[in-house]
User: What shape does this take?
Amino acid sequence: MNERQRNQLVTLMSRPYRYIRLEWSSDLCALRVRTCVKPIQCYSLAAMAELQRVFSDISESKGLVRHFVMTSDVPGVFNFGGDLSLFVLLIRARDEESLRMYGRRCVDLVWWMETASQIGVHTTVLVQGDTLGGGLESVISFHKVIFEQSAQAGFPEVLFNLFPGMGGWNFVIRKAGFAIANEMILSGALYTAEQLQRRHLVDMVVPDGSGEAAIEQLLNSVHPRLNGTLAALEGRRYASPITYESMLEIVDHWATTALKLTDRDLRLMERLARAQARKAGGQEEGAVDEIKRMELDQAWDEERTGITEWTALA
Amino acid sequence: MSLPFFAELVLRTDEARREFETHPVVLDAVAHGMTLERYSKLLMELFHLVWHFNPICAAAASRVSDEERSIRYFLYEHIHEESGHEEWVLNDLEAVGVLRETAPLTSPSVFVTALCGYNYWCADRRHPCSALGMMYSLEVIASVYGGPFASAISESLLLENRRGVSFISSHAEMDAQHMISLRLALNTVTKKEAKDAIVESALVNFHHFTKMFAAI
Assistant: This one.
């Protein structure tokens, strides 16, 4: 490491952060980010600003960071995704511009992941708890995705009449194909780690408590072949391109759609937010259980009315 | 391209909003509701806040410059819409077994006293547009958290329909409309000193409201 890189590392590591914690491992040039947006772990504006700062520092210090690793410091939760209360606020204020601004900030983070190979950075994420909506969108943009066995994930947005607009379609289609993207996004269902692995969205499923060892093992296996791996990942981007423009188009469409949500939809969103509050307050059941209840409610409604998603489409 | 002022206000005060939302007492109240005693105490505090809300807006309206007359007219309309809402709080108090006459006789907590004092001072000395910051924070609290909180209170106290929660639940719906007109009014503010005063006021109101709620 030369003098310039040493200074860049000092700058990178010494910034005061509130919602993330940084760790540096010099032997592998690995930067570890532990997220901690307590008590409700989601992509709040402030947390996203901190992550963006880290990404900018890495981009400005090309060659310094070779591995980027992300984990959550909140037990049982990787990330609940979007800040639901902020969504309710902006939708009630009919503020499409701010919704778009929020969405675009999310896209910028995901886009950094997508282009990390260009600046010589390999990205790995370890998911040890629930990850929903925008949380899952952020996860699948990493090069390597590790899930501990009990972690669950899904795109529940359709349950409150919305859809994942910050890269969900792009990355699921690339990794798992159209059929799986349709199934996951239009059902709002939750998936276990193994189900996600079968759908090629998760690369490794490890027993609970073995995630840390899996990161170490993965980094050690990738590091000697890093140049080739990154070049191959760049090649993958040419073979199956995701463009920033298409992501912006989707997120703009997401903001317009969000403004069409009804009071009933917002109440469902509030129901999820309340479940997050219960879990944050130490209760066993949280948003994941509430989503299961919402899925059941929807199934009962279909049973009662005879209307299903597919008959409605016919 | 610069952001409309409403978006800037959301950005600059988002952490204060989340401080309220994620305070353990608020989280617990939204998740599980409150005891009758604590809910009555909250309504008493709200009575004083609501009672002073319109006089603060009126003080601000009387000091708004002619240049910012659209804000003055907006305040007039808002005062008209909020008139008499302290009666809703008194009705809710009555529904949970507290004599309506007691609320005006009780002293508010130091947080509510300080908040009202700050808001009067702002209207008088800081900048009259700061009343919009007070309005923003109180309407965010009502429109975003009012609905779930009213549900939690109804469940925990076994209240039916809107009995006992009429003030909170109707403000949750009404303030959705208010949020739209507030956004449009805020987007007409152009002067830096007015914007800074509004942001400061929103931050102080979120902060003191959180403290008041936590002390219940």
About this structure: Chain A touches chain B through 30 residues (CB under 8 Å). Chain A has two domains: 16-258, 263-306. Residues 161 and 289 of chain A are 19 Å apart (CA to CA).
